[in-house]
Amino acid sequence: MPTVEQAADAASISRATAYRYFPNQRSMLVAAQPQIAAQSLLGVDPPGDVAARLDRVVDELMRMLLENEQGLRTMLRLSLEEGAHREHLLLRQGRAIGWLEEALEPARGKIPRAELRKLVFALRCAVGIEALVWLCDVAGLSRKEAVEVMRWSARGLLQAAVAEVTGRKGRAKRRG
């Protein structure tokens, strides 16, 4: 990771100017993270099918993850430091939760709200920098293999949630 001095030299600005904006390396690294301003990952003309929507969002999340892996790893490391201030960690603010909720929008009303929320959290656990780090660094998978595992996990979690609700409705009909 570059120091503030190295960044100032690379940008051809004085070190004093660099330090005025970034008092330390940590503040510089936090500010240097890619701005993920996307309000939606579904793109133009999103599919109506919840599984197709989830696939699209997961694919886009994976693309962004791989393009920004180094910065995301830095943010993950910084977020784990003792005394880390979450509000200063731009990429640790839960944007993926909103994108996953949007992907699952067609399931709203079919899956109870609490279970839909649980599904979103489970999906976020299965898809993200934390999962990539574990799959590549601990399990020894290639990035391509790790992405496939994350896609497979997302699909499986959705299928399990739908099957659980469907099974419960079937049992209720048989009792009623």
Key attributes of the depicted protein:
single chain, 176 residues, 9 helices
Which structural category do the helix and sheet elements fall into?
mainly alpha
Give the helix level as a range of percent: 55-70%
Arithmetic mean pLDDT? 85
| Oligomeric category | single chain
Percent strand equals: under 5%
SSE pattern, N- to C-terminal? HHHHHHHHH
Low-confidence stretches: none
Silhouette: elongated
How many domains? The number is: 2
Span between N and C termini? 64 Å
Task: Please tally the β strands and state the result.
Answer: 0
Q: What Rg, in angstroms, do the CA atoms define?
A: 20 Å
Number of helices: 9
Tell me about the largest β-sheet: none
Question: Secondary structure elements and their pairing?
Answer:
Blueprint: H1 4-11, H2 15-21, H3 25-31, H4 50-67, H5 69-80, H6 95-103, H7 113-126, H8 129-138, H9 143-175
Helix pairs in contact: 1-2, 4-6, 4-9, 6-7, 7-9, 8-9
Structure notes:
With 176 residues, the protein is an all-alpha fold. It has 2 domains: 1-32, no CATH class; 38-175, no CATH class. 67% of the residues lie in helices and 0% in strands. The protein contains 9 helices and no strands. The protein has helices at residues 4-11, 15-21, 25-31, 50-67, 69-80, 95-103, 113-126, 129-138, 143-175. The longest helix has 33 residues, at 143-175. The termini are far apart. The relative contact order is 0.11. The mean pLDDT is 85.
